[in-house]
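Look over both lines before class:
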Amino acid sequence: MRNEYKRSFRNYLIDTDLQLHLIRQSLIYVLAILFVMVSILLYPLIRDMMFSNDLDREYRAAQTFLMLVQWLIPAILIMLVLLMGRLIVMTHRMCGPLLNFTRTFNKLAEGDLTRKVYLRKHDYFKAECDRINKMIDGITSIIGHLLTNHEKLTVALLDLKGRVNDLDTREKIEYSLKIINQDAEYVSDALAHFKVQNNMPQENRSI
């Protein structure tokens, strides 16, 4: 049972460096706010203890100060523990989708359009997930049209090659060339949807 708990806890640390960084920064921010609030709350008591000339007033301030500290320290510790648990869950729901996005992008870079982003019920970035999947569907549709037109173009070329030796197939050859030209235009139209950055070296661009 204990090993299962440890394994379950480790599953919440998907990207340890990022999650711990976010948790650390959040805790520092909360501690700074708590320090300011506690300082403002205890300042009148500290002033009466340190600078009052009335012994009875100093005694009452010291008693009140000790009572507040006695309650504040456990309350702050409990709050920090609860906050840390909440931060672990929140960063888990953030880093899980980010890891999923990264793996999907790596597949896209390899030319694999079969992987989509699937998030769990309580994960964040649902809207971004839908946009990425919509983008993949759009690219898949364009690539599908390209493949279909490429197949048509290949068939037309093979058909034209088979008719070259015929003497009375000039009209058929012209018709096949027309079909090939149309398929080539379809491919060009599909490729026009993509904007590709020219990565040629600067010296070669001026040639």
Residues 27 and 33 are 10 Å apart (CA to CA). The chain is about 80% helix and 0% strand. Helices lie at 2-11, 16-51, 55-109, 126-163, 170-191, 202-205.
